[in-house]
Please model this.
Amino acid sequence: MALIDVQNLSVDFTAGSGKSKRVLHAVKNISFKIEPGERVAIVGESGSGKSTTAHALINLLPGSGKVVGGSVNFDAKQLVTDGHAAQEKEFVEVRGSGIGLVPQDPMSNLNPVWKIGTQVEEAIWANSAAQNGKKLDKKEAHDAAVQALENAGLSDAKSRMKQYPHEFSGGMRQRVLIGIALANNPKLLIADEPTSALDVTVQKVILDHLDCLVKELGTAVLFITHDLGLAAERAEKLIVMYKGEIVEAGPAVEILKNPQHPYTKKLISAAPSLASTRLESTKAAFSGYSDRPLPEDLSFSHLRNVPNFAAESLVEVYGVTKEFSIRGQKEPLKAVDNITFTVRKGQTTALVGESGSGKSTVANIVLGLLAPTHGEVAFNGHYLADYSKSRATLKHFRKMVQPVFQNPYGSLDPLVSIGNSIKEPLNLHKIGTKKERDARVAELLELVQLPNALKTRYPNELSGGQRQRVAIARAIALNPELVVLDEAVSALDVLVQEQILTLLNDLQKELGMTYMFITHDLAVVRLIADEAVVMQHGKIVERGATETLFNNPKKEYTKNLLDAIPGKHIL
Amino acid sequence: MGRYIALRILQAIPVVLGTTLLIYFLVFAMPGDPIAAMFGDKQPPAGVVQQIRDNYHLNDPFIVQYFYFLKGVFTLDLGNAFNGRPIAELIGAALPVTAVLAGLAFVFEILIGVTCGIVAGIKRRSIFDNTVLIISLVLISIPTFVMGYVLQFVLGVQLKILPTTVGSNVDLLHMLMPALVLAGVSIAYIFRLTRGEMAQTLLADHVRTARAKGLTAKQVTLRHVFRNSLMPLVTYVGTDLAALMGGALVTETVFNIHGIGYLMYTNIHKGDGTVVVSVVAILVLAYVVSNIIVDCLYALLDPRIRVGKKVSSG
Model:
């Protein structure tokens, strides 16, 4: 008999009331089964209903979410009957002891005011009465909690029980959450994007550990993920969801090799972790990298020429170190430690590394937003430090170098219309007449493939992908030489991510721009970068052409990073 | 933790000195000669005026006067009021009265405000929630003295349930109505604060995780929702305790209570600066002390705030 049997489950969200009431059918009539010890993954983009499905099983739907149809049978208990969820009491019994949950974001899922130990002990005494029929005493709960943390792979668990969540890294917190979820040895574990907030190598270690644990305990797992590669690697069975419906389900390898539904095919082709070559552009190549010369102006005479600046380079970084002093510590933190690399004209150079590797600091130094402690940066044959010596040259530099940031929600002013956001750099640099600027906005919207009608709308009316297109349009408005993309696609769904990467690639070919691409995701590097610089702890580990780096990594760290790309071993 | 508290106390010293200096300056910079006011139309002999001036150090420079005042504060000898009674004695008589009033009001605030806030925060948009929300809006809009007179008239004069004024009967029964009036606005604010915080915290990810552990609704509400909602509440309640003592001025006047507020009110009228400054200094101290207590509670409630301790960001 199946461990959990979901039949025709439907979930609705309602907004407003009376006449203005709107109903969103988040999950429509879905059915699936999970056998004891089986690992199943639900895959889909955001809004596909995958998380809603998982939360419906344990009656933890957010807001106005409500089960409106179908039935759920778990371990011979009827949790949902004909669209009616059982009493809360029944769910309290099942949660923790029957079904454990590993939530998505380890940073927000532990209560900041309680000790780690308290939060694990809580999970144990909450269920002990139901399982053993007696309440545990303090000592027993404490020992069980230490055991749970040790099992979850947290080193030094006993002393860490007394610490608070803010003293833990993301990976450690996720181990705590896994410990809590498995503390009562549940029969089913729901893992909702358990590692998407973590660095790729940490992700691999944690998922490997989770794999071992559930195999040992015989726990069935329901993975919720947007990453097809990860799903196929970690689960035997895949369920692909699209707009609240199951479009395809079956054995993982089979679906990956022989997808039937067009949506599944799209997902597979978009999954960066499964791709193997750089994107090709169909656009006609930009003819000749015109040396956009400095405007004839005497005030620019203080720009010294950099000796031996290679003709094909746009940016050269020589031995740059950046130190930050930390309050209460004598030794400053070396965020970037003596790095040297080149960004070639018209190419994409990727800076890859995990959080804390110093890659964003390098981006800010190249953007001229941070000054290096030691070393020099040269842009277009002149020292960057010289540019900032006068307003005119600094303004000229800002015109040639533009950033696109990670969060498209945060980088657009919510009170400024899309058109005005894109127009702002043109206004600042006093380019063209008002009419010409409007024409330029229309042209830019077309370049990033957004309808012209969008210019009067506001950021909150746009999707994440559309907003990132707007941010790109704003960045290229001034025809910059260099665009610094700081995790520009990390916040997007795979399908949107693919669209944006294709767009960036086409724009580069058409306009002859140079990209500096900051990312933690090696899979994305392979799609877009010509050269890659791998960073760790502020130092460069390895750099070279992307192809060479992927096919023949020299350093152990690069190998580990490549190895950690989920889904690598599937195809 | 000890270092944290010590740091807070050290920080309080310049605050106390600065504020008392400022108040001292404001009161004695006021135009008009207090000695002339004492004698009204009569012309006092020059020798008497000189002696009074010497007694109160009125001929010394302002800053020297301030140091005499500070010395008085630390030796608990605040000097005499213009009517000849020692100021320490006046305050000693008034302070316990106000303390009872403010304390009782404080208990009302916590009991009514927090309890209603918790219930309304959990059951948002219910009949209870809406009713209390409307009442709280009314409480906030009506000035304290209006509320005082209305209650006096309805409960005291018409229904005769509670005594109308206090006078010399400083007991719980007589203080009940003034305390309710004094607490009124704060009850409404605390209710709204608690309600909002509860509703906000209910949506937090870690609350869902707590439920997923298998905790019951009651356990989750107390251990995770209410516990986390406490922090902003403590900030408000802490500063409010001191504000209650200062705010008692209006209530004490309406109900004829001879507390700190009443003492200050009458002496401002008389132009007796020494008394006013001493009373205000006590109120400043009350503010500073309750702020230190709030800061310590804060550190106790939120482990992330304990400064002076190395925190690894990991």
